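Re: the 339-residue chain
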Amino acid sequence: MSREVHTIKCKAAICWGPEEPLTVEEIEVEPPQSSEVRLRLLFASLCHTDVIRRSGFRYPLYPRILGHEGVGVIESVGKGVTDFKEGDIVIPSFIGECGDCENCKSAKTNVCLKYPTNFNGLMADNTSRMSVKGQKLYHLFWCSTFTEFTVVDHNYIVKINPELQLAHASLLSCGFTTGFGTAWKEAKVHRGSSVAVFGLGGVGIGAIIGAKLLGASKIIGVDLNNRKKEKAEFFGMTDFINPKEIENKTCVEMIKEMTGGMGVDYSFECSGAGSVVNEAVEATVMGRGITIMLGGAEKNASISCLALLGGRTLKGTTFGGIKPRSDLPSIITKCINKR
């Protein structure tokens, strides 16, 4: 006989409005409904996307619990959930993978048509499982990890090997994996190629590691913060540019000098700054350069069409092209093996 599942009271960080400081308050988390699980969060991490959502960009939904990077243990399961059980260690994901839709069967994309990203801050039945002071709380995507307990649709969680350090598992649920996956699945970086990474945060470091593992011979990192140089070099960066310290040259000109005047084969925009997108495109080689935008650039970003007329390619990505259930296990194995 299954145990009775009750509403839980716990602590969570609440976002009450644009740019307002988060406040830690007691909330109520309801039992999981059909096709849902309730998680006890073990670790959570911060992503630039959380900062953007806090500001209200695209969907100003408040009060809200932010956070979409995390790892947790299943505390209880709702009706119809048969592939997970209490005690499983899982990563919540902001995209799903049904395995059956046209996109999932394709090798071209990881954007599932049956289980897409959720932007309305509610569960599948358009209600919330969390509240504060009697007021409905909006989720972030299907996740909301800045809380001790959360409820997630089971189609958006991935069971993980518990041998992985769980603090590291949190970083795999978005930032690092987005960068790593972009080099691996989206760009398909080839051996001996040249790469430029704009922005050396968690996403950028992931792109550097992916490019190195795939055999890139030159990996140029670009960042305004010199403190990131040493860590990026440890993970495989070969050259570093701080645009603030360049005299009489642009960042693009510096990159072309480092690549025999041609530009890099691949560039990854990981900073989130709209003005950087065009630099990333112009830094690639004419005719075959590929730029991938990962940073969630602000809404007023503009793209120069002239830079693309020379045969360059610019594309966006979701989660670095990674399919949560098909691809994450191999990344987890690489982490366990310290690759």
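The chain has a mean pLDDT of 92.
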